[in-house]
Amino acid sequence: MSLSGLLGWRLQAAREMAFVGREEELAVFNAALYGGGCSVLYVHGPGGIGKSALLRRFAHEADVAGRPVSLVDGRMLEPPSVVSELLLRDPDAVLLVDNFERIQGLEGWLRERFLPRLPMGALVVIAGRNPPDMRWQADPGWAGTLAVLPLRDLRAGDAQALMDSAGVPAELREPLLAFAGGHPLALLLGAAVAVKNGGRWTPNQDVVATLLDQLVGELPSAAHRRALEICAHAYMTTEDLLRAALPEEAGTLFRWLRRLPFVESSSLGLFPHVVVRELLEADLRWRDPEGYAMMHGRIHAHLAERVRTASDGDVLGAVAALLYLHRGNGADFRDRHDEGEFQEEVLREEDVGTLLRVATAAEGAASAGCAAFWAERQPEAFRLYRRTETGEPVAFSAWLQLAELDEEELTADPLVAMAWAHARATTPLRAGEHLAVSRLWALPPYRGNSPVLDLIQWRVIGNCLRAERMAWSYIEIALPNQAWVEHLRHYGMRDIFEQPRPGEDPYTLFVHDWRAVPAQAWLERMNHLPAGGPSAATAKLAVLSQAEFAEAVRKGLRQLSRPDALAASPLTRTRLIAERAGQTPATALGDLLRQAIDDLRADPRSVKFHRALSVTFLRGTPTQELAAERLGLPFTTYRRHLTAGIERVCADLWHRELYGA
């Protein structure tokens, strides 16, 4: 019988047709095969990345070169003596060891005892999930003799070629690539499902389970599984984050995570391979939706607090980590795991000339004049963005905080003037409040869907969430496309349709009232916003002037015995009541007013005010004359105490409305 009539030949032919890419790895192996390279190759990468396929191709190349080949599997390895006899006798022998992670305990024996006894010319390839022990590379003797080849995802063109060989229809390639990236096993399994389902692709639970078995395998315990699920859900996992979401044994579990072959590290923390991430996410959402929601809530609370408390230099990373949790709810997030193409700097005095050149190139002389004006008045508001590789400045942003404007400021920048006019015409600033205007100057190539705009967006969101006493925020966008408009609306920003023209291009301002939807409420709504759902700024808090607020307090005191009347008070829609969770608005308002009266007893100077308020509003005295009689006071004295007490309660509650409890 000819070889072509054997099943093994057919299997081999099919595998060779499906093999794509790996040119660099083949080049290193062939150099070693023909005597121009190293003697030991160590290939490592996560499960399903193509290590076994690569070793089969190495075996084919060695066979073509006429060299004797032994391909052994760590799961079923023959006694070392059998293999060693082959290699020790023949200087042309090639040994390929697959699944080395199953016999990782032999690594020291190989390095110290077996491999040094090989004849010159013999070639050994070790392939496993784990990288080699650092003692290989720390030993000068192995320099030039050992080559370490980390196996990564297939490049885009090679992934397309793999789908070609699997017969994936053209219309399914984009969703399949979005799921699998360049991971060979995920691509092949996805292709098989697509072909089986008649050209429809969805990562069903059978595919998820199969891939998890192959890529992740058995885990030591339930705590290890939860740690891995946290790592998959968060943008980057640090020991601090792991401790917040999984307090028990966080340090031990973090050290375990960083050793996993499908988990990588960056300066920001640990992150899993993209396919492993998606599989773990899909599996947990399907298997335990309640547990998934609880995990998400703990991570979200930790990251939101980190945004508020991070140092200025760490704000961008903190906001990016928070927004990553919302990547399935319409938040646009490009998954990057390092410091990226661009870096942010504070504005220095020597950068002002660069600012003017960039602003002129970006938007013309008039807009550059606005930039120069504010750089002189608020230099601390500016940030400069450079290309990391070249240092080229490509954009500037400014976060202008304004409590009042003089005539020169109103005429210097029409965008700021427009924001100021809008605030005054809607709900003006109250004592101690300010508004903020975000300004942006970016060179034309970086105006569209650019990573530098991500950094600027993260800075703006960080400023909003960290601000104190900010009433309004305004974000200006030049020539906004529909995608940008929808993106900002998703974040609860509404656009003002008038378009001022400080330069040659039209602008649109997007506005948010942070008194109506405070930062905490904004975060909670973002956290629960469904994909494609309504804007985050639906229900709003009432923003009352001081006079309106005081009148509502006076009326509320008179209505303390009538919960139905309290329910209609505008105070039930203020920050005061929003802070008192777990009660109906009417009950919360009644308790708040009673507590404000009671608090007057703590100040000896206000005890007389407390007595007047208590008798009048808390004890249900039918008339003020009877209240004065019960207190044993002349009516005019009682009225003076009552009026002063009401004013004191109004002032105390107004202070809490503005500054919080």
CATH topology of the largest domain: Aminopeptidase
Portion in beta strands: 5-15%
Runs in which pLDDT lies below 50 for 5 or more consecutive residues are 529-538
Q: What does the oligomeric state look like here?
A: single chain
Globular, elongated, flat, extended or rod-shaped: what is the shape? elongated
Describe the protein in words.
- This protein folds into 5 domains: 10-150, 3-Layer(aba) Sandwich (Rossmann fold), CATH 3.40.50.300; 156-215, no CATH class; 222-324; 342-528, 3-Layer(aba) Sandwich (Aminopeptidase), CATH 3.40.630; 546-659, no CATH class.
- Helices cover 51% and strands 13% of the residues.
- The chain contains 30 helices and 14 strands.
- The protein has a 7-stranded mixed sheet with strand order 8-9-10-11-12-14-13, with helices on both faces. It has a 5-stranded parallel sheet with strand order 2-3-4-1-5, covered by helices on one side. The protein has a two-stranded antiparallel ribbon with strand order 6-7.
- Strand 2, helix 4 and strand 3 form a beta-alpha-beta unit.
- Helix 10 (205-215) packs across helix 14, helix 11 (222-233) crosses helix 14 (274-287) and helix 16 crosses helix 21.
- The chain starts with 6 loop residues before the first helix and ends with a helix.
Helix-strand layout with pairing:
Layout: H1 7-18, H2 23-33, E1 40-44, H3 51-64, E2 69-73, H4 80-89, E3 94-98, H5 107-114, E4 123-128, H6 134-138, E5 146-150, H7 156-166, H8 170-180, H9 184-196, H10 205-215, H11 222-233, H12 239-245, H13 250-258, E6 263-266, E7 269-272, H14 274-287, H15 289-309, H16 315-324, E8 342-346, H17 352-363, H18 365-377, E9 382-387, E10 393-402, H19 407-412, H20 414-425, E11 434-442, H21 451-466, E12 470-478, H22 482-490, E13 494-496, E14 507-513, H23 519-528, H24 546-558, H25 563-567, H26 575-578, H27 585-599, H28 607-618, H29 624-631, H30 635-659
Parallel strand pairs: 1-4, 1-5, 2-3, 3-4, 11-12
Antiparallel strand pairs: 6-7, 8-9, 9-10, 10-11, 12-14, 13-14
Helix pairs in contact: 2-3, 7-9, 8-9, 10-14, 11-13, 11-14, 12-13, 14-15, 15-16, 16-21, 17-18, 24-30, 27-28, 28-29, 28-30, 29-30
